[in-house]
């Protein structure tokens, strides 16, 4: 009995000090998107946690980068291989500027403007379009389509929160 009581006390003390950051709650759309941005933002010399990134996606997810002349789609596995490139290990930052969310019965679409900066100091803005589904207690990304803001075609103010 003494062991069980001690275990219970340790559990209660540990639980009292733990608070889930609601912004990182994968049971929310915003939490899932924020976690992805946190995972792909990397300090120089750091390694990406591809297992953590994988957990944010549906197993058959596709990822597409597009512009007005081309679109290239890769599987989640191929995308994770690309993230292991030394280019990213030299540092990369991506953060949200603004987003709009539409959701119905476990299906969601997020249109998000973003700011990015690579290890060479090159800065860019662009748009991410996420499709997500809710299952197993978590929002998972089914599809991610993105483009970089081209010169002469600024992101509309409504997608910048203005």
The strand count comes to 6
* Outline: globular
Mean pLDDT reading: 85
> What series of H and E elements makes up the topology?
HHHEEHHEEEE
How helical, in percent, are the residues? 25-40%
Q: Report the top-level CATH class.
A: Alpha Beta
| Count of helical regions | 5
Overall SS class: alpha+beta
Describe this structure in words.
It is a single chain. It is globular, with a radius of gyration of 19 Å. Strands 2-1-6-5-4-3 form a 6-stranded mixed β-sheet. It has helices at residues 2-17, 29-40, 50-54, 76-83, 86-89, and strands at residues 57-66, 71-75, 92-104, 107-118, 123-135, 138-148. With 162 residues, it is α+β, with helices and mostly antiparallel strands. It has a single domain, classed as Nuclear Transport Factor 2, Chain: A, CATH 3.10.450.50.
List strands and helices in order, with pairings.
Elements: H1 2-17, H2 29-40, H3 50-54, E1 57-66, E2 71-75, H4 76-83, H5 86-89, E3 92-104, E4 107-118, E5 123-135, E6 138-148
Parallel strand pairs: 1-6
Antiparallel strand pairs: 1-2, 3-4, 4-5, 5-6
